[in-house]
Amino acid sequence: MRNKNNRDVIEKGNKFYWHFWHLANERIAGNLVLLALKCLIPIYYAGFLFNQFTRKKNIPKKYPVISVGNITLGGTGKSPCVEFLIKKLLSKKRKVGLLTTGYGREVKDEKKLVFSPMKDNLNIKETGDESYLFSKHFPEVPVFISRNRAESFLNATREKECDIFIMDDGFQYPCIGKDLEILLINKRNPFGNGSLFPGGILREPIDSMRRADIIILTHADECSSENSKKIELSDMLLQKAAQIPVLESIHKPLYFEDSLSGKKYQPEELIDKKLLALSSLADPFSFEGSLAKLGLNTVKKIRFLDHYIYKTEDIVWLYDIAKRENIDFILTTEKDWVRFPKGLEASTPTLCLVIDFKIIKGEEILDDFLNKVLEEYKA
Q: What is the reported pTM?
């Protein structure tokens, strides 16, 4: 694994991933690697279209399905949005089930399906980090983990535990009819460098946003009114999705929690502390930006690739750096913490940032759509 180091930032992995795919760094635009990857885009897209066409089915449905997804490879904040929807539906006394592939898990189901009510004896290698956190935050919600979500959905409906389902990362999944298609777009960095994978972060062309019933712009508070990407996104939405309601949301920091003791810290308690920011996210800049907006002094930033499973040697190396730099606290995310190896002592206190997904524009529109879906399936 290649490292890129300077005084403040250590990137464990390929700098190309962040600065080319996500930031559209023009200095890399003439790189031969870029040209080679762009040549592969037609092959990827042909495979994508073939997959969409051959997998499209109309399986029988007795219960509504709400899909939350994106058209990029990550960084939109899907998981907090899914949790926001779960809370809404639970408050309406609905029996919610979650359909997910369990991205990042080591136990794959090539032939058999995994039905998981997410009991305490399951671990992250079986579930993946996001599914693990869904279980932790909502122990009463069954989580159905399978690469074949259509068959998983049919099995789930036979169990009759749920009367409504949320499909995580469902925008590109054609096998289940969706009653509400919610598309998330990162307002701060909506489409990366604008190219399809493997030349960029787009999973499908921008025109595909027309399939959405609702578009939610995430990280809306991280984009200034003068930001050129915001202006371009506004024009794009008017051109390609003029009839689709556009909502705005933020990931509001609430507090920090000690990963081992459970002690909570308010942001102001960390103002004068020397801090290290650790993340392995599709968009680490959003997490680091949140810390900066809180006025925190992050003297060191360490970034791993998205969904990276930390090894014991990684954590030993991390705490060595923290000790050498006289770091008071390591700040990370819940998704990162659950990927730490178990049983290691934290020689430097490690705190998770707890956030709240909040819609700041158009929540009543979402409520109207949800109520219509529930009314259609009313017993």
A: 0.90
